[in-house]
Write a structure and sequence with these properties.
- This protein has 2 domains: 3-118, Glutamine synthetase, N-terminal domain (Ubiquitin-like (UB roll), Roll), CATH 3.10.20.70; 128-449, Glutamine synthetase/guanido kinase, catalytic domain (Creatine Kinase, Chain A, domain 2, 2-Layer Sandwich), CATH 3.30.590.10.
- The strands form 2 sheets. Strands 7, 8, 9, 10, 11, 12, 13, 14 and 15 form a 9-stranded mixed sheet that branches.
- Helices cover 36% and strands 20% of the residues.
- Helix 1 packs antiparallel against helix 2, helix 6 (216-236) packs antiparallel against helix 9 and helix 7 (281-301) runs antiparallel to helix 9 (358-375).
- It is an alpha+beta fold.
- Strand 8 (195-200) and strand 9 (206-211) form a beta hairpin.
- The protein has helices at 3-22, 49-55, 122-135, 171-176, 178-190, 216-236, 281-301, 307-310, 358-375, 401-409, 412-418, 420-436, 442-449; strands at 27-33, 39-45, 57-59, 85-89, 95-96, 103-112, 138-152, 195-200, 206-211, 239-242, 258-264, 267-268, 320-325, 330-335, 346-349.
- The chain binds glutamic acid (GLU) and magnesium ion.
- Glutamic acid binds next to loops.
Amino acid sequence: MDAEERHERRLTARQDAARLTADGVRAVAVSWVDNAGISRVKTVPTARLADAAHRGIGMSPVFDVFTSDDVVTTSEHIGGPDGDLRLFPDLDRLTVLAAQPGWAWAPADRYDQQGRPHPACQRQFARRMTDRAAAHGLELRMGFETEWTVVRDDAGPGAGDVAGRGPAYGLTRVTEQSAYLLALHDALDAQRVDVLQIHPEYAPGQFEISTAPAGPVGAADDLVLVRETVRAVSAAHGLRASFAPTVVAGQVGNGCHLHLSLREHGHNLHRDPIGRYGLAATADSFLGAVLDALPALCAIGAPSPASYLRLVPSHWAGAHRCWGVENREAALRLVVGEPDDPDGGHAELKPFDAAANPYLVAGAVIAAGLRGVLDGGPALPEPVTGDPAGRGDLERLPTSLAEAVGHFVRDDALREALGEELCGAIVAVRRAESEALAELGPEELAEATRWRW
Ligand code: GLU
Ligand code: MG
């Protein structure tokens, strides 16, 4: 980032700060998501926003090797107490937080003290991969689903006392929690998050929000903002929200499915008049390569040992490496959409959960898919109908984090895309979490991770 760009940022931030102050905003939370999926933050008074936009806010690079329970591990390139980075708030995404009066939020990009991009900055990785796709004429639209479980805030550390006890998808749950859900709708609307729907999910106390498609970085920003909004609105209603992959061992968990669609030079690649299932050859290769890379991608998208309590057959989590048209047990679900909708059609990747860093997920999926497009890699195999669990001939996705990491370290394309520093830090965090939680049984593992994200 050169001096001129920083100067411009200061001028813009001064205007933003004046507007925020007039709106009663007194502090800005500048956050980024680490490799363990935790949003870490620095906050500044609104009066210092221009300075933060100009010089960045200091934060140690050691957070790249923090685990989800705040243990500090180390990696070849990153670790230890030395050095500093600068968090630069993205002013284009500066948002007044409707459920936290007096606060605004902005996601950060991380640079070093000389103004060079930090090689392990996850948000810039997602942007780099978006640009890489664009260089090949490809545009991606993405959206994450947020699932969470609410318990009464006075219920103690367990998850027994869920709020919203009515049946799965039951109107009862909306009736019971109508003020809460309405406050969520209102807050997200005020923050200009385009909500598609909010509904009660399968597990007791579980709800879901899906948001409209956006660019990959914007979709990941949306996810971060939605989650903190859910958290804040929950707290204001005497509730506590868990986004953990597994809230209660053995139950359906919280997924964080990624929806994605592809366009090439403005053409929707899910509406090809002669391609099978409407997929143009480029989309077929892209999705085929993503399916191929799913075991490795699990190390990014299902990054906690607890992810593998969730990623089990017949729990709608997509535990087999297969795809299907509108098959909700396939890891990759092709959504054909309304035939007369020229913008319709997309794919849903189900194995991912909310312990994942969404910027890493977005970037890694693009990197995996592009490999297929560029190498003319495998197109999608035959689709699967019905529950894959009953067939016996389909590959299970990894059943542990260690197994996923084994696939990941052998995936040269993903390693190249992420770069050595980021890759090394991710592997270090995954291995540290695997080892630290290795001895825990399912219930203990769910309990240990229930409130981390
Ligand atoms: N809760 C399920 C999961 O763990 C997903 C349910 C759905 O299909 O939305 O991914
Ligand atoms: Mg769902």
